[in-house]
Design a protein that fits this description.
The strands form 3 sheets. This protein has a 7-stranded mixed sheet with strand order 5-2-1-6-7-11-10, with helices on both faces. Helix 1 crosses helix 6 and helix 3 crosses helix 4. It has 180 residues and is an alpha/beta fold. A hairpin with a 5-residue loop joins strand 3 and strand 4. Helices cover 34% and strands 22% of the residues.
Length: 180
């Protein structure tokens, strides 16, 4: 049996997401049996990644009931600067945080967690370009490929994807084992 069978994950999308930072973790959790729903501001809209790979939103942010999901993935690229402007996205991230469900963020995705106000005292990593933002939000920033602090899994950039994908899957599997 696959470790994530029966688990449901939200993956957020908006224009200019970093293609690999969305698709690599999505495929990784699918390989372990999880169901992934892509969510964007508009249901049915095709969002285009920085390198031209499309991602069609199966749900709008407004349709998401975070209690029906086991984790969330936030890709990097330029999309996080847009994602953090949606009140519903910030609400979903806060609800996932309150429920201690795995939150995966890579590169610039940390901006979404900053805007959600959930990083005080949390140890994370990100692209060095937003280090100051992360620290000013109260996070402890480390320059490491992947940092896991409880249910928050963070990574710096695409070369860190193998370690990030494994850490995120491991966190979901551990949450499943713990009954979350």
């Amino acid at each position: 049996m696959l470790r994530l069978t029966g688990k449901k994950i939200i993956a957020l999308v908006d224009e200019e997401f970093e293609d690999l930072e969305l698709w690599y973790p999505v495929y990784r959790v699918r390989e372990e049996g999880a169901e992934v729903h892509l969510a964007g501001a508009e249901k049915g809209k095709k969002y285009i990644g920085k390198y031209g790979v499309p991602a069609e939103a199966e749900l709008s942010y407004e349709e998401i009931d975070s209690s029906r999901y086991d984790g969330i993935l936030v890709p990097g690229g330029w999309a996080p600067d847009k994602l953090r402007r949606y009140g519903k996205v910030l609400q979903i991230v806060r609800e996932m945080n309150d429920a201690k469900k795995p939150i995966g963020q890579i590169c610039h995705a940390g901006w979404v967690l900053v805007s959600a106000g959930i990083l005080k005292g949390v140890t994370v990593t990100s692209t060095p370009g937003i280090r100051d933002d992360m620290e000013n939000a109260g996070a402890v920033w480390k320059d490491e490929p992947v940092v896991v602090d409880g249910h928050i899994i963070s990574a710096r950039r695409p070369p860190d994807l193998p370690e990030y994908g494994k850490a995120y899957v491991d966190a979901l599997a551990a949450a499943a084992t713990a009954g979350n």
